[in-house]
């Protein structure tokens, strides 16, 4: 569906500019649009599935070295890993998983007085945590929401016009109303202008 929507402008562009179907420009443009269409974020269930796949190797390490101290009401350091029994719930605990990844990769956990994982076990757990966090980041990437346009203040506008024209004596913003501060000391905040 999305690929068809992206190819419509290509067909219009190609027909108006004299490019025929199969011309080098049309082929390159089609490849670029196809690549763009294929980069659509994976649905949330795909992230949960990939987390579950890798977790099968990391689960024994987590169970052996972490679960005893970090589950239930008496979880140490306010790190409760009881949710790890259900891999589908990992996405709701991303910030905690980031903290766990930092502690594991810097060898702060398990603490020195506790049994330590081998380098291979630590690597398996760290790789799974990094893969999970990367998948979560990809699943939430995309539209940043409403972005307020940033307007140039009078001084920025004047300097931009001077730079573009090369005429240092221009002062186009001289007749503009004065920039007002929005209370935070800046004069170019998009929401206040």
Provide key terms for this protein:
mainly alpha; single chain; 51% helix; elongated; 193 residues
* SSE class: mainly alpha
Uncertain residue ranges: 1-22, 31-45
Choose one word for the global shape. elongated
Range of helix content: 40-55%
- List the secondary-structure elements in sequence, H or E: HHHHHH
- The average pLDDT is 74
How many individual helices? Answer: 6
Radius of gyration: 27 Å
Q: Tally of extended strands?
A: 0
The fraction of residues in strands falls at under 5%
**C-alpha end-to-end distance:** 39 Å
Description:
This protein is an all-alpha fold. It is built from six helices and no strands. It is elongated and about 75 Å long. The two termini are 39 Å apart. The relative contact order is 0.09.
Describe the protein's topology.
Blueprint: H1 2-17, H2 24-38, H3 44-65, H4 94-105, H5 119-140, H6 154-165
Helix pairs in contact: 1-2, 3-5, 4-5
In short, what is this structure?
The chain is mostly helical.
